[in-house]
Write a structure and sequence with these properties.
Elements (H helix, E strand, L loop, with lengths): L1 E4 L6 H9 L11 E5 L15 H13 L11 E7 L9 H15 L12 E7 L2 E7 L13 H16 L17 H9 L6 H13 L5 H10 L3 E6 L5 E7 L13 E2 H4 L5 H9 L19 H21 L2 H21 L2 H14 L15 H13 L6 H28 L2 H34 L3 H14 L4 H5 L4 H13 L4 H9 L10 H12 L45
Helix pairs in contact: 1-2, 3-4, 6-7, 6-11, 10-11, 10-13, 10-14, 11-12, 11-13, 11-14, 12-15, 14-15, 14-20, 15-18, 18-20, 19-20
C-alpha cells in the first residue's frame, strides 16, 4: 500500500472537481465519498441534490473563518493511498478505516480529543482513494503535519499487516516514479503490456547500456524509434532531454514527452554522463580462446561471465562506493543480455532486468570507473549482436546467466546488510527470473555433457569420485547425488585432457564464492570449470570419450533417480537453476 502525499494547493474546488469528474482519460468510475471528518459530509457523487460547491464550502469553513491576512496561501492537503496490484479489492468500509488511520497518523485529524482538520476520502477506482483536507484545524491553528509523508508510510506498513495485504518494503526516495492511475488505464485501453512511462524507461536504459558518448546514446534512442527533444542553454550546451513513444498521444494528438529524470533518477542527463565520464577512450576486448571472432555473441558472453566472477568478490568484500558502482553496472549487463538473447530466454531476462532496475540505485553514491569491466561487458554484448539459442551461443548464455545469478545474489545480500529493503527485494526477484531463464538455456548443453559423462569408463569415474572427495570433502557427497555429476565428470575429463590440474580448478571454482543458493552445485561447477579452463561451453563438437561397451561395468549410480524420483535423460539433465 503506497500513500503519496502531494504538494499543497490553494483551490479546494478545483481538486474536488477533478476527483469527482471523469478523469483525464475517463478512468474515474463511480466517484463517491467513503469517509469524512464528521462521517456525514454531503456526497456529490451519490446525492444528486448535493453540489461540489457545498462540499468545498464545508471543508473550507475553518479557513474562511480566519481573518484574510491569517489564511494560509496554500491550504489544501492531498494524498492518494493505493493498494498493490496483487491485493484483493477492498470494500468502501475498509477504505474508510484506512483513510481515518492515515489522517490520524499524519496529524491531519489526530483524534483523541485533539482539534483536527476537515477532510474527505474519495474513491473513484477499485485500487485507491484520495484524501482531501484543509490545513486549518477547527480551533484555527495549523495542524502538526510535519513529515506527514513519512508518517503515512509508517502507518501503511502497519495497515498492510493487519489487513493481510502485500508488504511493501520501506522506501528511500531512490525509486523510479510509479505510473499514475491514468497512465495504467491508458495502457490498458491501448492494449499495452506496460505503460508508456515503463516502456520508455526500459528503452532509455537499453540505449545507455555500454554507451560512451552523448552522440552514441541519442543515436540509439533514435534507432529505437523514440521521439527526442533536447533542452539547450543559450550557449548551445545540452542541459537535458525528453523522450516519447510515437503512438502515445494526449487528447490534442500531441506526443507525451517524459524527461529522463522523470523516468528514473539515474536516467537524467547528468547521471548518464557520469557513466561514461570515467571510461577510457578505448578498452580493448581480449580474444576468447576457441572463438571465431572476439566480437561474436559467444565471446561476449564469456567475457561477461568472467567480469561477473570478478565483480562478485568486489560486491561481497569491496568498498561500499565501489560495490555500488558494480551493482549499477550489473543493471546494464542485464539490459544488454536481455536485448541480445534468443527468444526462449528473452522474456525472463527482460523481466530480470526490469526488476533489477530498482536494485541498481541507493543512497550509497557510486564511484564510477571501477565498474569499467562490467560496462565493457555490456558494450560487448550489444556489439556482439543477437545470440542463437543453441550451440556455443546458447551454452555461453547459460554460463553468463549462471555467473550473473551469483552476482545479483551478492547484490541482494549487500543491500540487505545496508538496510536497503526495496533494493534487496528487487534483486531477489531478479535472481528468480534468472533461475527461470537458466533452465531453457542450460538444458541442451548440459544434456550433451550428461550423456558424455555417463559414457566415461568406470576407472575414470572412480578416479574422479576420489578426486572430488579429496578436493571438496564438504560438497562431494551432495555433488555425487546430483544428476549434474555426470556433466561435471565430463568437464573434468576434458580439462585434464587439455592439460589442466583438475584439483586446482575445483578448488578455485569454490574458493571465496558461495554455493548455498545453487539448486545444483554440479551445474555451477561445470560452468566455472569450463570458463576457467577455456573449454568450449557447448561440447557438441568435442570428440566423445571412449564408451563402455559392457553395461555391467558402468558405475551403479548411472541409473539412480533424482530425489523426486525422476530418472535422468538428456532432455532433463537434473536440477538446474
Amino acid at each position: 500500500m503506497i500513500p503519496s502525499v502531494n504538494d499543497e494547493g490553494s483551490r479546494t474546488i478545483g481538486l474536488l472537481a477533478y476527483l469527482f469528474g471523469p478523469g483525464k482519460h475517463e478512468e474515474h468510475v463511480d466517484p463517491h465519498l467513503v469517509a469524512s471528518f464528521d462521517s456525514m459530509s454531503p456526497d456529490p457523487g451519490r446525492d444528486p441534490n448535493t453540489t461540489l460547491k457545498e462540499l468545498q464550502q464545508l471543508l473550507d469553513q475553518p479557513v474562511m473563518a480566519l481573518a484574510e491576512h491569517a489564511r494560509p496561501a496554500k491550504h489544501v492537503w492531498h494524498t492518494s493511498v493505493r493498494a498493490d496490484p496483487g491485493d484483493r479489492t477492498l470494500s468502501d468500509e475498509e477504505w474508510a478505516v484506512i483513510a481515518s488511520r492515515i489522517v490520524a497518523a499524519t496529524g491531519i485529524d489526530p483524534g483523541e480529543g485533539q482539534s483536527g482538520c476537515r477532510w474527505v476520502a474519495v474513491r473513484h477506482a477499485d485500487d485507491h482513494i484520495h484524501i482531501v483536507a484543509t490545513l486549518v484545524t477547527e480551533d484555527g491553528h495549523r495542524p502538526d503535519d510535519y513529515r506527514s509523508g513519512a508518517r503515512a508510510q509508517a502507518e501503511a506498513r502497519i495497515i498492510e499487516t493487519e489487513f493481510g495485504l502485500h508488504q511493501v518494503a520501506p522506501g528511500d526516495g531512490t525509486a523510479a516514479q510509479r505510473p499514475t492511475s491514468a497512465e495504467r488505464h491508458k495502457a490498458k485501453r491501448q492494449g499495452r503490456e506496460r505503460t508508456a512511462r515503463e516502456e520508455l524507461r526500459e528503452s532509455v536504459r537499453r540505449a545507455v547500456t555500454g554507451a560512451r558518448s552523448e552522440e552514441e546514446f541519442f543515436g540509439r534512442l533514435a534507432a529505437a524509434g523514440l521521439l527526442i527533444r533536447k533542452r539547450e542553454a543559450p550557449s548551445a550546451d545540452l542541459l537535458g532531454y525528453k523522450v516519447a513513444l510515437p503512438d502515445d498521444r494526449n487528447k490534442d494528438g500531441e506526443p507525451v514527452f517524459y524527461p529522463g529524470a522523470r523516468l528514473a533518477p539515474d536516467l537524467s542527463l547528468p547521471s548518464i554522463r557520469e557513466r561514461w565520464s570515467a571510461d577510457p577512450d578505448q578498452v580493448p576486448s581480449p580474444d576468447t580462446p576457441g572463438s571465431a571472432s572476439p566480437n561474436n555473441p559467444s565471446a561476449a558472453r564469456r567475457r561477461t561471465a568472467t567480469a561477473a566472477w570478478v565483480a562478485i568478490e568486489v560486491v561481497e568484500r569491496g568498498d561500499d562506493a565501489v560495490a555500488a558502482a558494480y551493482i549499477a553496472a550489473t543493471g546494464e549487463v542485464l539490459d544488454a543480455l536481455a536485448k541480445t538473447s534468443a527468444a526462449h530466454t528473452r522474456n525472463e531476462l527482460r523481466d530480470a532486468a526490469f526488476a533489477f532496475e530498482r536494485a541498481s540505485r541507493s543512497h550509497v553514491r557510486a564511484i564510477r570507473g571501477h565498474d569499467r569491466a562490467l560496462r565493457q561487458a555490456a558494450r560487448d554484448l550489444v556489439h556482439g549482436g543477437p545470440a542463437l539459442g543453441r550451440g556455443e551461443d546458447g551454452a555461453t548464455t547459460a554460463m553468463a546467466i549462471d555467473m550473473l545469478f551469483f552476482l545479483i545474489t551478492a547484490a541482494a545480500h549487500w543491500h540487505a546488510r545496508k538496510g536497503h529493503a526495496q533494493q534487496a527485494e528487487a534483486a531477489t526477484r531478479a535472481a528468480q527470473h534468472l533461475r527461470n531463464a537458466y533452465q531453457p538455456a542450460a538444458v541442451q548443453p548440459l544434456g550433451v555433457l550428461y550423456q558424455r559423462g555417463r559414457r566415461l569408463g568406470r576407472p575414470v569415474l572412480q578416479r574422479q569420485t576420489k578426486l572430488l572427495r579429496e578436493t571438496l570433502p564438504d560438497l562431494a557427497e551432495q555433488i555425487l547425488a546430483e544428476s549434474g555429476w555426470y556433466a561435471l565428470a565430463a568437464t573434468i575429463a576434458e580439462a585434464e585432457a587439455a592439460g589442466h590440474d583438475s584439483a586446482a580448478l575445483l578448488s578455485d571454482a569454490v574458493e571465496s564464492r558461495e554455493l548455498g543458493t545453487a539448486d545444483s552445485v554440479s551445474d555451477v561447477l561445470v560452468w566455472r570449470l569450463r570458463r576457467r579452463a577455456d573449454l568450449p561451453a557447448d561440447a557438441t563438437g568435442i570428440p566423445k570419450h571412449r564408451t563402455v561397451k559392457n553395461p555391467a561395468t558402468v558405475r551403479p549410480e548411472a541409473a539412480r533417480t533424482t530425489p523426486s524420483g525422476r530418472r535422468f535423460s538428456a532432455e532433463a539433465p537434473g536440477n538446474t537453476r
